[in-house]
Specification:
The protein is built from eleven helices and two strands. It has 295 residues and is mostly helical. A two-stranded antiparallel sheet has the order 1-2. The chain is elongated, with a radius of gyration of 29 Å. The relative contact order is 0.15. Bound molecules: heme C (2 copies). The site of one heme C has 28 residues, from helix 7, helix 8 and helix 9.
């Protein structure tokens, strides 16, 4: 291949690489700007009435008997295969069902995240049934408890790094814990799940009561988790998955080298053309022909 032919291949290639890099950069920025809170509408209005405010107790009983009672007992009192759910509270049931942790296919060391088996109304029906058996525990948060408009995200970040990052890591990527447990990644969790996890302490995560983390502080943490961890504001334009300086270095290297190569070819191209003009009307560069002969 002559250098000219080579250039004909390389220059469009470099242009495409640069265009893609530019596109990724622009998309990354618009994504950051469009980043909306992952907060779901909790759709629950708390009233001071009976537990049936959540849904239908009869529907919930039917679902519970079909999917849960084999391990947790017909009255949710527990069995050799699963713990008692009495007085565990609506938030615990809601969290374990909305994360897909329950129902377990078989008793394992730690439940894993999977798509929820039940839709929102079915979950609320099961909550209604189980909480009707015994009072107690943490309620499902009201819309006000999840209102993040005035939440202090800077304080939320401080509290997160102090209380949560030791297990979940500061980027929320999750980490292995002792005894084969792991703190799951926090990407994709909803505001309600953060609230329920913090207040109820699932599995070997400790519960944090309102005296350790006040409702206002919790709103800050929720805002940090659902907005900053879900949609990291990357001042450089694109987060590259938030995996850190190594990946960023590689992209810098390839895009930077690409730009340098492009500049070098452009300069080389011009120099050669000038040479051609001085060489007195030759159509082909003789050097190209020589090099071509070796290939
Ligand atoms: C195959 C047995 C099995 C089935 C079926 C099952 N569970 Fe469980 N469940 C368990 C075990 C075992 C644990 C304890 C897991 C742990 O602590 O890591 C548990 C834990 C829970 C917890 C957390 C309890 C606590 O105190 O932290 C909730 C809530 C729960 N299950 C609800 C349900 C519901 C609701 C269903 C039905 C939709 C269900 N489970 C189906 C075995 C089961
Ligand atoms: C001692 C370690 C530990 C600490 C500290 C901790 N967590 Fe967790 N967290 C866990 C573990 C383990 C689980 C998974 C529980 C399970 O699978 O049943 C979890 C689960 C969660 C979940 C549910 C994730 C999902 O997949 O849906 C959220 C949200 C969460 N934690 C948020 C927090 C926040 C916010 C803090 C700080 C206030 C915190 N955690 C502190 C260990 C921890």
């Amino acid at each position: 291949m002559t250098t000219r032919a080579l250039r004909r291949v390389l220059v469009p290639f470099a242009v495409v690489v640069l265009a893609v890099a530019l596109g990724v950069f622009v998309l990354g920025r618009s994504h950051v700007q469009a980043g909306s809170p992952a907060m779901e509408n909790p759709g629950i209005q708390l009233t001071a009435s009976a537990a049936s405010r959540y849904g239908s107790i009869t529907e919930g009983r039917t679902l519970f008997e079909a999917s849960c009672s084999a391990c947790h007992g017909a009255g949710a009192q527990g069995s050799a295969l699963g713990p008692s759910l009495l007085a565990r509270g609506a938030a615990t049931i809601d969290l374990w069902l909305s994360t897909g942790w329950m129902p377990l296919a078989e008793p394992t060391a730690q439940p894993v995240n999977k798509p929820p088996r039940f839709d929102r109304q079915q979950i609320l029906d099961i909550v209604a049934f189980v909480t009707s058996l015994a009072p107690g525990g943490v309620s499902i948060p009201s819309a006000a408890a999840l209102n993040l408009k005035t939440a202090d995200v800077a304080q939320g970040f401080d509290l997160f790094s102090l209380n949560c990052a030791p297990c979940h890591t500061i980027t929320g990527a999750g980490d292995a814990l002792a005894d084969g447990y792991h703190a799951p990644p926090l990407h994709g969790v909803t505001a309600r799940q953060v609230y329920e996890a913090v207040r109820t302490g699932p599995s070997n995560m400790p519960p944090f009561g309102p005296r350790q983390i006040t409702p206002a502080q919790l709103r800050g943490i929720i805002k940090y988790v659902t907005q900053e961890i879900e949609h990291p504001a990357s001042p450089g334009g694109i987060s590259l998955g938030g995996v850190g300086p190594v990946a960023e270095g590689f992209v810098g290297l390839f895009v930077g080298t690409g730009a340098c190569l492009l500049a070098a070819f452009w300069v080389g191209d011009r120099t050669e053309r000038e040479d051609d003009e001085h060489g007195g009307g030759q159509e082909e560069d003789p050097k190209d022909g020589l090099e071509g002969a070796h290939v």
